[in-house]
Amino acid sequence: MPNPLPAIAGVLLSLCVLTAAAAPPAGFDARVEAAMQSRDVPGMAIAIVEDGEIVHAKGYGVRQLGAPERVDADTIFPTGSTGKAVTAAALAILVDDGKLGWDDRVIDHLSDFRMYDPWVTREMTVRDLLLHRSGLGLGAGDLLFIPRTSRSRADIVRALRHIRPATSFRSGYAYDNILYIVAGEVVAAVSGQDWETFVRERIFAPLQMRTATSHEDDRFATENRAQPHARLDPRLRGLGPQQLLPESEGLGQVGAAAGGLSWSAQDFARWLQVQLALGALPDDRGRLYSEASAHEMWTPQVPVPIRPYPAPITDITPQFSGYALGWNVQDYRGIKVIQHGGAVFGVLAFTVLVPERNIGISLQINSEDVDVLRGLGFELLDHYLGFEPRDWVAAFATWNQARLADGLAALDATGVQIRRATRPSLSPAAYAGTYADAWYGPITITETGGKLRIDFHQTPGMQGTLTHWQYDTFRVAWDDAAIEPASVAFSLDAEGKIAQIRMQAISPTADFSYDYQDLLFEPQTLK
Question: Beta-lactamase-related domain: which residues (predicted)?
Answer without folding.
Answer: 28-369
